[in-house]
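Hi V.,

Quick status before I head out on leave. The structure for the redesign project is tokenized and pasted below; the design run finished overnight.
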């Protein structure tokens, strides 16, 4: 079984975020980047398939040379090899088009992508890849087992969970539940050293339309000052909730 894990290179949530060029571009200076959390759950599940069923695990992303440390970390965690599409990930469709080409050329059976990335939270790439390739698709996946060409998966839905039977090839949008946080792998020294000799292939992008453009980014408005109301002054509390907060 051949598994491809799509890896997004995203800012750490503790990083201070700024924008440049009249707030039209993200400023990456001084920002620490990490593997997208939803992708890391998927990678850890793929390593489980590697250990339990002899699967080969490839990781791929769309990005410049600055994303290679993130791919090397995925290799240190246990992926067999990596592919970097040498292009700026301009929008979801462009990224999906590039990854679809990687999948087609590699004849992968299972493709695991995070259901959304931590940076833009678009949640569109896995479904777009499935649409381009005509593969089975399952979003918000929390469990997956593969027996030959048969797949059994569980996904979250409003008010519960849904169990689905389908077949390979399949693309899933994964999330926490594929593994738990305690199961995430931290690269050890042996993994880090081994990752240096693993193959990281750089491929050029295929032609794809760029359908969207970021016009402006805005930070959330600063939180207003807190108003404290005495415990025995219920009339004032009701007045503030009704006339100022407008929640009642």
């Amino acid at each position: 079984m051949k598994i491809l894990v799509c890896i997004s290179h995203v800012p750490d949530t503790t990083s201070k975020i700024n924008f440049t060029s009249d707030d039209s571009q993200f400023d990456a200076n001084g920002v620490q980047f990490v593997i997208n959390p939803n992708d890391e759950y998927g990678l850890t599940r793929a390593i489980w398939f590697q250990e339990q069923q002899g699967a080969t695990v490839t990781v791929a992303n769309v990005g410049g040379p600055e994303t290679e440390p993130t791919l090397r970390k995925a290799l240190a965690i246990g992926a067999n090899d990596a592919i970097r599409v040498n292009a700026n990930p301009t929008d979801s469709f462009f990224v999906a088009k590039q990854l679809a080409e990687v999948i087609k050329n590699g004849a992968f059976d299972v493709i695991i992508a995070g259901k959304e990335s931590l940076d833009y939270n678009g949640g569109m790439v896995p479904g777009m890849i499935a649409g381009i390739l005509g593969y089975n698709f399952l979003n918000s996946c929390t469990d997956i087992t593969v027996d030959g060409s048969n797949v059994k998966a569980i996904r979250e839905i409003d008010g519960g969970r849904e169990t689905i039977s389908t077949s390979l090839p399949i693309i899933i949008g994964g999330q926490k539940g594929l593994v738990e946080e305690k199961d995430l792998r931290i690269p050890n020294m042996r993994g880090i050293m081994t990752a240096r000799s693993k193959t990281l292939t750089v491929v050029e992008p295929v032609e794809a339309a760029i359908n969207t453009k970021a016009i402006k980014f805005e930070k959330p408005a600063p939180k207003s000052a807190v108003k404290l109301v005495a415990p025995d002054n219920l009339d004032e509390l009701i007045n503030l909730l009704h006339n100022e907060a407008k929640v009642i």
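Above is the designed sequence. The radius of gyration is 21 Å.

G. will cover questions while I'm gone.

Best,
W.
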